[in-house]
Amino acid sequence: MSRGLTPSQTVGPFYWGTLVKTCHAELAPPGVAGERIALALSLHDVEGAIVPDGVLEIWQANSHGRYNHPDDRRNLPLDEGFEGFGRAGTDARGVARFATVRPGRVPWPAGGLQAAHINVSVFARGVLNRLATRLYFDGDAALADDPVLNLVEPARRGTLIARRSGDGVWHLPIHLGGPKETVFFDV
Amino acid sequence: MNEETYRRPSAGQHPPNRFDAYKSTPGRSPGKPAVVLPHSLSEITGPLLQAERLDGLENDLTRQRMAEPLGERIIVHGRVLDEDGRAVPNALVEIWQCNAAGRYHHPGDQHDAPLDPNFYGGGRTRADAEGGYRFVTIKPGAYPWKNHHNAWRPAHIHFSLFGPAFATRLITQMYFPNDPLLGFDPIYKSVPEGARERLQAAFDMESTQPEWALAYRFDIVLRGRNATPME
Predict the structure, then answer these.
(1) Which of A81, A153, B32, B167 is 20 to 30 A distant from A178 in Cα terms?
(2) Could you say which of A15, A124, A181 has the minimum Cβ distance to residue B31?
(3) Under CATH, which number does the domain B26-222 receive?
(4) Residues of A in contact with B120 (CB under 8 A)
(5) 10-residue block means of pLDDT along chain A (187 residues)?
(6) Is A7 in contact with B196 (CB distance < 8 Å)?
């Protein structure tokens, strides 16, 4: 029996933060293992202008490279209180901030490991389908061999790589379109 | 590894990213095709939010404030399923909507219609083992939205679902059956004909509560799993 999928619709301009309680900008309570990191993801339209009414979600493995999910059956530690999910709206400057831990590496189905990454979902008014992208970390020696980055034309890979600023925060601009368009994935 | 993956949607089930009649889309849609990503653990896992604590009134939007909100009380219920008709048990279902007058309890909504101090408009529930969920709310109003001359959104309730994986994430909108505004709404019509009709709830006389509330049924279908294992 095959049923038709429920189609996607825009999140619209009037969403969480005020209406729905499930917001998690701080993913890692005290005691969770790993290197503490701060993320600032900015959202931009095709002209480069900020998008102040977007919603960003992140999904990541813990510092051991384990996803808190029953389909990750590997014998690696889970951290109490760390689900790996975050959600935040973009602010008046178009930025969504998260405090988390740097994820460990996870395997690639054909063998080997992926470079450490965070999975990102983008929603906004004017965005009819969830846009999926990834955040990688600048300076990671594993980037060169990452099987997903290697699916992307070299000139565009930089759109997926967060850079650390002087204040220690990892910044990743996400461009919905235009000359700096972020690489989005059909997941 | 022998993990299951999720089927890719066939053409015509979701809206295109750019749909010019919905005027916010050209400035906010990618021009390049998405890079097809084979499914790894990153895509077949996802937030289940099982530790999320829901209080008992979160699925009843008429009992979240001091008194009952104004408007027509309704029951909205259904099941969360996958394409094979299998229940998605324990799924977190989130909804948000405007009040009966067509105004959101949100600072960005400047529509000249009254706020209802007794209606907040956000709800959550967790589907049961069979994927069943149920909300009590009031019927949202239509409202104007400036997309084009005399543009009105048909009454709708926003729905957010995670399903079992990052790959199954879905945000959508539920509409009411045979709403005359549907034919004029570019957001509804962004979904190809043959699929958009699934966004209309069904009036459900069986589930109405006499002397109390009418009922609508809205089943939500998320992506199904592939039968073949990953390489």
Answers:
(1) B167
(2) A181
(3) 2.60.130.10
(4) 19
(5) 92 72 87 97 98 96 98 96 94 95 97 98 98 98 98 98 96 98 98
(6) yes
